[in-house]
Fold:
Amino acid sequence: MGILGPMTGATATEALEPKVAGANVQVEGFVQHRSLRRSMSYKPRSWRVLAALGGLCLLLFASHSGSVTKATPEVSPIKFRNLAKAAGIDFVLENSPTPQKHLIETMAGGMAVFDYNGDGLPDIFFTNGAAIPSLRKESPRYFNRLYRNLGGWKFADVTEEAGVSGSGYSMGAAAADYDNDGHVDLFVAGVFKNTLYHNLGNGRFEDVTEKAGIKSDKWAVAGGWFDYDNDGFLDLFVVNYAKFSLDDDRYCGDPGRHLRAYCHPRYFEGLSNTLYRNRGDGTFEDVTEKSGIGKFVGRGMSLAFADYDNDGFLDVFVANDTQANFLFHNRGDGTFEEVALAAGVALSNNGAPVSSMGADFRDYDNDGLPDLIVTDITQETFALFHNLGNGLFEDASYPSRLTMLSAPLSGWGDGFFDFNNDGWKDIFSANAHVDDNIVMFQATQYKQPNSIFANLGNGTFEDVTREAGPDFQQPSSHRGAAFADFNKDGKIDIVVSSLEAPAELWENVSPNDNHWIVVRPIGTKSNRDAIGARIRIGDQVNQMSSAVGYASSSHFGVHFGLGKTQKINRIEIRWPSGISQVLRDVRADQYLEVREPVN
Structure:
């Protein structure tokens, strides 16, 4: 994530030389990206040089025009407009930047979208920072914020009456009904301060952190809910980053020019993640060591869940910062094995770790297998891991065109969602560089516009950011992102946080008459949220999950774009309990609540 090292014993030039995967390398007077060099390694040397020059031209064109070439397939338009101010969303993410450039300052921004009061409309919760060095919310400007959806694109700040203003330097959020009482609860991750809020069902939350057995002994960035043992109760996976102290005053940057920057992650010792098993009585057992999770040390940024090998048990992907990613395969006996390297998702195609930040785990090519999208920083390019089946993935970043499209970008929050309802999941990324003064070190920008990559249905994507509307071109210091249909028109909307800038609320105004359905599964034998339920409509497969993107949570159901289909012949649901259910002749353009059958 961070790119600069300390100046001790090195010249400014040496310290600023990129040392992470995806860094640029000089080749005969021009800059060639390693991912392009790798993909062209089979060609004769003269052709490699010519191809690299051509690739560079494509990269430059992509960064200026928003697309590489005119796509052959017709793409239904995707358009957004920012309604945050008009809707009453006045949240500003306060990260308390200091001259010392403490790494926590650049990593805030997770959020959660969920219906906290059961009125059928998704509400918005933002995590917020705190004062430094106290790491306390010393004034209301640092409060975490909850906005109630009033309908009609109007929101009201209900933070204090709901009791969720929080304490400490918050980072991430995860929403789910962990006690199966029908009210969505909330976990907030932070710097030595985690909080578990129990939803009381009356518009208020109770802090049950200590009573539930949740610890606050590490720098946690994110969390996620899943039922790893299929006992009907949601368990909690907490993503931890690194050992950290405000007393650490390492200087990174260029002292000759008095330019300080955030230090490269390699100077921070990583941590193991934490797994809590839900006992079903409101308390949790720390099974980090017992499950095998604790043996693996990384610098976790986000997580995503999917049953990638279709064995009936949810697996966990953890995006690590400049370390190999983790893929924890669920053995089904309460333990996990880490298989990322063998599966092909630990590293990029050039065999090096990258600055993995946001992640989502869904099927983008409609082959029935969940794939992975992982964002990272400028010149590393986003990773697209295509699920081949049999427990294996391939890096499809280059053939999908994401290598070229994402090269100029630094991505944080992301998600696979069908924004034009054409039946193919598109990609959204919330973009901004890690370092606020990066322009002084590299030819890139700190504030960047968000991106939309439209799925062309042939394994490739097209950058349609330029066509997404004038509001969408505005650069900002984006971080977290969450997704929901806020006005229940069947089109997926987006909310995005930005450091020291107003949050963005993106209404999807895509002008098409494509059809859709949102399935809301309700578990009986399975956990009530049915997290882990696998739903198939035609060739499309999606699953119920609330863990999406960077340190964020999207809890609203399972969305399908249907194109011109007005009646669905068959919906298949495989519940976490193992029960299978089939629905026939279902009308499109509705929110469909489905209750798990008893047997």
